[in-house]
Request: fold
Amino acid sequence: MRGSGRRTVRTVDVWPGFVDALATLVIAIVFVVMVFAVFQFHLKDVIAGRDDQLARASTQLAQLAESLALERRTGEDLRGRLDRLQAELSATLGERDRATGELGAARALTRAQAEQLEIANRAIAADREKIEMQLRELEALAALRQTLERRAAAAEEAAGAERRLSAEAQAQVALLNRQTAELREQLRRLENIMSDSERRTAEQQAQIADLGRRLNLALASRVEELARFRSEFYGRLRQALGERADLRVVGDRFVFQSEILFPAGAATIELEGGRQLQRLADVIRELAPRIPREVDWVVQVTGHTDRRPIATREFPSNWELSTARALSVVRFLMANGVPAERLQAAGMAEFQPIDERDDEIGWRRNRRIEIRFTNR
Reply:
């Protein structure tokens, strides 16, 4: 403010406020720039991660495309093999039908020839009886001839002095000679009849032997067919159940260790055992329609225990336990579509061990359920 007499003039200093406002604006701009920089850095990392994921996804997509192409080629190969197998199966079924017809004809021929052989044997027996009777008559006549010859000799000696034979004795000797000749002729004819009968018998026996050989060949073919289906059954079963230490093939039997099917000392099938037996039922149902009706097959289920005895109210001995476990498996298979007439159950207790060791390893191996595909 200036002195009196003059107009009073006030001045305001705005520069500090402007500087403060400008500084605040600069700080705000710097903060925004820093936030933007941080956001850009984070966005760059996210974009880099997405690029890596996209690259990995592209790699996986290429691998999947290769796998799909390989699966398509494999599917085409499998379809080709399936067509070939179906053609082979059709040929095999045709051969089976022809063999069945030949077997039926052979059996009918065998029965007819057996009847003919029986008739021939009865005729031979009757002829033998007649021959024996005639031989006895011939022996009696020969004895009579000898008696007469002795009598004739005595008469000749008695009449030797007179040099004369009795007419009656000569007639008897002539009659005996004729009878002897007739008996010899009959004996010759009987010998010829016996020779013809023996020859026919030999021919019939040769025919029977040939029929037996053909029947044996047909039966061997059926046995071979059963063995082929048994091999396929075990192969399908091994494929369905997988490679496991507690599932194995011993000879012509598929062996389940009891621990995968039942609790200790019980015959109730557990959940895991049910899954394994379900696969077994699936394999049997799949294979059963392909087996010819002429092959009388059966799935035999046998229960075994170790040598340690059991004595409970439910299972007084190992016999009851092994039999109950085999029956449990059979009932499970029946409940899952396996025909009852194709199943057998048996319990062997501890009397057929496969491991003679008297320790935990031997006991565990002997506690088992055996599945055997065989004929009835």
Remarks:
- The mean pLDDT is 78.
- Residues 15-158 form the longest helix (144 residues).
- Helices lie at 15-158, 167-241, 271-287, 318-335, 360-366.
- Strands lie at 247-250, 253-257, 297-304, 343-347, 368-375.
